[in-house]
Specification:
mainly alpha; two-stranded antiparallel ribbon; globular
Length: 307
């Protein structure tokens, strides 16, 4: 063995780590369960088939053009923007505005009725009876939505036995539409708010009252902030389907108070103008997406600050 080999610097092997000059990547150890990514494939397939594919078809129809049906060209596919330009017509702007106004009013009325009901269920009902009360709230879902709406048509008819005895004649008015909206979507608001109230630590409220806080002060500073995520979720669950409603305005409003859903139904079924019906649908989705984004931002802030 020569002297040169004895004092030579040994070269770094690949197993010794990255070469000098590059930062060493530190492996983060996690103690949570690790699942293979292919387990998400059913969910991904479900998402692609039932959300992405219909949305792509809807956009393709919205960008198409209604052809001359007598010439055999019913739909001309391409990139035509006339359908979206037509949405800014005064007639359709008025329908969009009326839809948002009645959906907003229905949501406010549902909150006014549903929050006290959920509060009573969580705060004042005995524990062994809460399941029965939740069951009573869920019972309307056991029957068809169409049948329940027809039942309200009979109740609100001024010539019927119920409204006639009370002297009411509000069928085919915005009041009848509002009553139908509140009744139809009340359980969808009550259940998430009730769940939020059930998870709340009520000893905080009791402690605040023991320290001299008035009931309204305890509600405003403790109950409302802690239940705000459930309140926002319930409000969104109610507002979105109300904005897309078309059965209640047709049956209880008598067609006098058109919603966007009625326009979409008329374009697809009555006028057979699928491209414009698809454009109206995308316009409605765009408006509702704004509210969804606002909810996500609000929920993210609530989670960030630990509310």
């Amino acid at each position: 063995m020569s002297t040169q080999n004895a004092h030579s610097v040994p070269t770094a092997s690949p197993a010794a780590g990255p070469p000098a000059g590059k930062p060493r990547r530190r492996r983060v150890r996690t103690f949570g369960p690790r699942y293979p990514s292919w387990l998400a494939s059913p969910l991904l397939l479900y998402y692609l088939l039932l959300f992405v594919a219909p949305l792509v078809i809807l956009i393709a129809f919205a960008l198409a053009k209604q052809g001359d049906s007598f010439a055999g060209d019913q739909i001309l596919y391409g990139f035509y923007w006339e359908n979206f330009s037509e949405l800014f017509d005064d007639l359709y702007l008025r329908v969009f505005g009326q839809t948002m106004l009645l959906a907003f009013g229905g949501t406010v009325a549902t909150v006014a009725v549903g929050f006290p009901l959920a509060y009573w269920m969580a705060r004042h009902v005995r524990t062994d009876r809460k399941g029965l009360i939740v069951l009573l709230v869920m019972i309307p879902f056991w029957t068809s939505f169409l049948v329940r709406t027809f039942a309200w048509k009979l109740l609100l008819d001024g010539d019927g036995p119920f409204a006639g005895a009370l002297g009411l004649d509000i069928l085919y008015s915005w009041k009848a539409v509002l009553i139908g909206l509140v009744y139809g979507y009340l359980p969808m608001f009550v259940l998430p708010v009730y769940a939020a109230l059930e998870r709340m630590d009520w000893t905080l409220v009791d402690g605040a009252k023991d320290l001299g806080a008035k009931p309204w002060t305890a509600f405003r500073q403790i109950t409302f902030p802690l239940t705000r995520p459930g309140l926002l979720a319930g409000t969104l669950l109610v507002f979105i389907p109300m904005a897309g409603e078309y059965v209640i305005p047709q049956l209880l409003g008598g067609g006098r108070f058109l919603f966007v859903g009625n326009v979409i139904q008329g374009q697809f079924i009555g006028a057979s103008n699928w491209p414009f019906g698809a454009a109206v649908s995308i316009g409605l989705m765009a408006i509702l997406s704004i509210f969804v984004v606002l909810y996500v931002v609000s929920a993210t802030k609530e989670e960030q600050f630990g509310a």
